[in-house]
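Lecture 7, part B: from sequences to assemblies.

Below are the input chains for today's worked example.
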Amino acid sequence: MTSDNIIEVPLYEIAHGRTGDKGDRLNVSIIPFDDSGYDAIAEQATEARMLDMFRHRGATEARRYDLPKLKAFNFVIENVLQGGVNNSLNLDGHGKTLSFHALTMTVRVTPAILAAAEQARGD
Amino acid sequence: MSVQRMHIGNAAGFSVDRMDVGGPVADALIESGQPAALFYETLAERTLAIAQRERRRDPEKGYTPDLAGFVRPVLKRCVSSGIPIIGNFGAANPIGAARHLHELAKELGIEGLRVAVVDGDDLREDIRGLRTEKWGDEKPLDLANTEILAANVYLGAQPIADALDLDPHIVVTGRVTDSALALGPLMQNFGWAANDWDKMAAGVLAGHLLECGSQITGGYHADPGRKDVSGLANVGFPIAEVEADGDIFVTKPAGTGGVVNTRTVKEQILYELDDPTHYLTPDATLDISNVQVEQVGPNRVRVTGARGRNAPETLKVTISADGGWLGEGEISYAGPNAMARAKLAAKIMRERVNHLGLDCDLRTDLIGTVSIHDGDTGELTASFDGEPREVRMRAAANAHDEATAALVAREVESLYCDGPAGGGGVRRSTTWRVKTGSVLVPRSDVKPRVTLVTEDDL
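Predicted structure of the full complex, as structure tokens:
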């Protein structure tokens, strides 16, 4: 992307997602509203950056699984739930609210990608 | 020639799901005129320890407490239309659940109810004698020094298919893998072989899509102005129309709220998934990397491309043990300087726990900032620079014993008089915790059992 018009936005502007838990492991799906957002997410929403988003909770590893046919990503984050529903002192032991934390990660996109996302989500 | 489809409906995705949602699903299944089944998934991972405790207190109990609440609205119409109801609401006492269902039938004036019970999942008495393997990289529970409250193996779809061969009105199970509640009737209806991996995978996927109820029909999805969903107060629960070759059409009953679109379906496909090429179930290893979704009509999404590989040789057993006690208390501060007063309250709580020498792990939260996304160290909250007009201080502690947990919660209430100015709205609670761990056992050591319970057996 070399355009001067590149805009930095939270993932929330171009994607949606959902979390699920298994023990102390969290998964977060990141799904572009429009397929055109897929490559920008693939390039920029790296495992290392996702791990950084959750380091304050003690996360030790983030894995990303790409689903080019479904046009979606599955992030799996280890040791992020402080014991999970068994043992966590967090009000949200399941980590159900955390998709909206993951969606605050920023990405740089072209105006066309942002416009396509806005169009797709019906703004 | 029309393609034969089996319609699988779901009317509960967890034990505290709405109890009035089954009617529209049952009606849609009846109206389709196609082979159909209606299932309820009401068993969370830790539920069985609590259910075992209930059963020890009362040998007739130990099944899902809301069993009658779930089944009452649909039983008559499902019995008269020949649509089997399938549910894991047997929990720690599937036979007890069967007896309870007979009482319900009597109350509703239904005669000749046939309930098939699937059990053999309860390994509490046997687990110490079985050859077990570690489950993944999880640190195993120290079984030798642990009182096992529950140990249940995840059974697959075959015993459910076998149960349906007995032509029951209801199939009650204990622990089965959630997706088996849909795959079982599909196997039985289509005669799918248990080693036809792509078919098994398609049925597992259908079950996975439905097992959380409304999470595929607009629940757990709405974000106003962004992902709008209308009618969630009357959200329709899902129906999967599954073809003999494994193609799936996800929809919901007419006249209900919610929405079925490619977004709701994608979110649910990836829900609680790890490696998308290795979704392990007792029935098949599902690979969703080729799955595609397509909106083919209003509230109608076609899902294709599930691939399967052989099922694992071992089955997962979840073991529950005493997990100590959680004590929680909350108090609100509002108006000018609310944040500083809430912070002071949190500081006082930490000092009090030290002062009293309480043996516990303490966490404090400032609800109204970003505390729920924070870790136990409060790093995120410390960097929060807003000035909310209302902040709720929460203290939570894990302790070995109930008395310590209760004392931490009580200390929050003491803040009324002994803490910062203007603290109000204290709520406190003490909760017993269950910890779980999983192991693998050889498939050959697991013996699922199917029993038909009729009025004559009571």
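Note for the exam: Residues 33 and 122 of chain A are 10 Å apart (CA to CA). Keep this in mind when comparing with the next example.
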